[in-house]
Amino acid sequence: MRLDKFLKVSRLIKRRTLAKEVSDKGRITINGIVAKASTNVKVGDELAITFGTKKITVKIEALQEAAKKEEAANLYSIVKEERISSEV
C-alpha cells in the first residue's frame, strides 16, 4: 500500500493530498529512510512523522484499503511521541 493512502486510511493525516505534501517535504521517514508519497509500506514498518514541533513514531500493525473511524486506530501503534525544540 502507498504511504499517502495508509496515512489517510489510518487517519494519521486527514487528507491524501496533505499526506502527499508532507511526505514530499521530507518530513516522513520509514525505518529511518526519508520516504515519498508513493513509497510502499508493509506491516512492521516504523513511520516517523514530523508535525511542526511534534514528532510521532508509529509501527504499522495492519493494512486495509478502507477503515471505519473505530478501526483506524487498530492499524498502527504509537511507539514514541516527542516534542522538538523550536530553537533557531
From TrEMBL:
Claim: Flavoprotein is one of the keywords in the record: no
InterPro entries for this protein: RqcP, S4_RNA-bd, S4_RNA-bd_sf
Any GO BP: rescue of stalled ribosome
Cross-referenced Pfam families: S4
Keywords, sorted A to Z: Protein biosynthesis, RNA-binding, rRNA-binding, Stress response, tRNA-binding
Signal sequence coordinates: none
Gene Ontology terms, MF aspect: ribosomal large subunit binding; rRNA binding; tRNA binding
Gene3D superfamilies cross-referenced by the UniProt entry: RNA-binding S4 domain (3.10.290.10)
RNA-binding S4 domain: residues covered: 1-64
PROSITE patterns: S4 (PS50889)
Family per record: Belongs to the RqcP family.
Subunit organization: Associates with stalled 50S ribosomal subunits. Binds to RqcH, 23S rRNA and the P-site tRNA. Does not require RqcH for association with 50S subunits.
Functional description taken from the UniProt entry: Key component of the ribosome quality control system (RQC), a ribosome-associated complex that mediates the extraction of incompletely synthesized nascent chains from stalled ribosomes and their subsequent degradation. RqcH recruits Ala-charged tRNA, and with RqcP directs the elongation of stalled nascent chains on 50S ribosomal subunits, leading to non-templated C-terminal alanine extensions (Ala tail). The Ala tail promotes nascent chain degradation. RqcP is associated with the translocation-like movement of the peptidyl-tRNA from the A-site into the P-site.
HAMAP family: RqcP
Name of the protein described by the UniProt record: RQC P-site tRNA stabilizing factor
Organism in which the protein naturally occurs: Priestia aryabhattai
Upper lineage: Bacteria, Bacillati, Bacillota, Bacilli, Bacillales
Gene: rqcP
